[in-house]
Amino acid sequence: MGYKAIKYLIAKFSKNIFQGKSIFNNSLPVFLFDKRTLHSAFAYEQRLAPIFLTKAAFCLDKIERLKWVTTYLISCLHFSVTQIKPFNPIIGETFQCRACNIDIYIEQTVNHPITLNFYCKELNNEFIMYGYLITNASIYVNSVSTTRLGKFYIKFKDGNLFQIRLPQIIVKGISIGDRIFNYINKAIVQDLTNGLCSFIEMNPDERGFISSFFVSKKTFPDYFKGKIVDLKDVNIDEKGINHTLKTNIKDYGKIEGEWTSYISFDNVEYWNNDKTKSFIIFSHEFTLPSDGRYREDLINLINGNLEQSQIEIEKLENSQRQDKKLREIYSKSQK
Predict the structure, then answer these.
(1) Residue spans per domain, the chain
(2) Beta strands in 113-267 (DSSP E)
(3) What mean pLDDT, rounded, does the chain reach?
(4) What pLDDT, on a 0 to 100 scale, did the predictor assign at position 206?
(5) Collapsing DSSP states into helix, strand and coil, what is residue 150?
(6) Is residue 330 pLDDT above 60, yes or no?
(7) Which pLDDT does position 29 carry in this prediction?
(8) Which residue has the higher pLDDT, 195 or 172?
(9) In whole angstroms, how far apart are CA 88 and each of 110, 169, 214, 271?
């Protein structure tokens, strides 16, 4: 797949140079794409939210509620796994659906960096999720890392407000070797109302290339560990992912698990993937015409029409590039 993509891009670069066009006006080949957009992928991650956030909503103990919100976050992560690229939504594109008792609404508001705004509402108003996520990807020789920053809030009917900070994604083996998807860095769940925090280290025994020759790895790559602590004892990186924990602090419980299969608090299991059935995502009776499921490139890809899908995605992306130019011209004219 990697060689096929490189061959395709070289051919496109050569054609653009011959025609006097910019080499940056190239769309990726559609055979690299998932049959979903980033919007639908985010909605897909919420398939266990009705279980764990509903448990949190009816929990009166603040530590116990934090545990259930943390369980929700970890249970979402294995739904994010993909070896191919979801479609980038275009500005103004929307997505709406329902997962059991949660209505989900998403809209794309910025192209670069890719920014989606979301609002998710429990049908009986027990809780809402809202905010925005900015997706940034860094490409290396044989890997891709992705961060999702922004503001991700969960608010319960009683006013209890939480903020979620997602871990970093790393995909190795892009060009050669085995393709491996994993999470690294920190996952954070902040109880902003009660001043508590779940501080989780993803893949804590990960070693660098050199150190891996001298120090053996003790745990599986999908293992994580953490603590429930006071929020004041966590140094939050507001602009990035480099969150740290202060030393010699009080903790209210131990967290550990594997994001592919389970999470436990003080050795009590709160989620086990083998024992938990997720909900399906289904469409609302009325869906906006701007919904990403109506994209011609996506429809053609689903139907196996790769050539027409490539034509349609290039139409959309060229239109968006032209729109960006017009915005820039207007912005300059106002200075």
Answers:
(1) 30-282
(2) 114-122, 127-139, 143-156, 161-165, 168-172, 180-191, 196-202, 223-230, 234-235, 244-245, 251-258, 262-265
(3) 87
(4) 73
(5) strand
(6) yes
(7) 78
(8) 195
(9) 11, 17, 41, 31
Does 298 have pLDDT greater than 80? Answer: yes
Query: From CA 229, how far away is CA 249, in angstroms rounded?
Result: 8
Residue ranges of the alpha helices (H) in the chain? Answer: 2-18, 38-44, 49-57, 62-77, 296-302, 306-333
User: What are the tokens at 286?
Assistant: 């009325």
Task: Please give the Cα distance from 310 to 218 (Å, whole number).
Answer: 45
Tokens 């025994």 belong to residue = 205
Tell me which of 271 and 7 has the higher pLDDT.
271
Q: Looking at 6-20, 106-120, 299-313, which range is the least confident one?
A: 6-20
Q: What is the DSSP letter of 209?
A: T
What is the C-alpha separation between 279 and 98, in angstroms, rounded? 10
Read off the pTM.
0.86
Fold of 30-282: Porin (2.40.160)
The residues facing 191 across adjacent strands are 162, 196
Sequence letter at residue 319:
S
Worst-scoring range by mean pLDDT, 186-195, 241-250, 320-329? 320-329
**Which tokens hold the place of 84?**
């191919």
Distance CA(194)–CA(188), nearest Å, equals 15
Alpha-carbon span 280 to 112, nearest angstrom: 31
Amino acid letter, residue 311: I
Extract the tokens encoding 158: 């009683």
pLDDT for 64 equals 98
11-28 burial, b at 16+ Cβ within 10 Å, e below that, comes to ebeeeeeeeeeeeeebbb
- Distance between CA 221 and CA 170 in Å, rounded? 11
Distance CA 180, CA 81 (A): 10
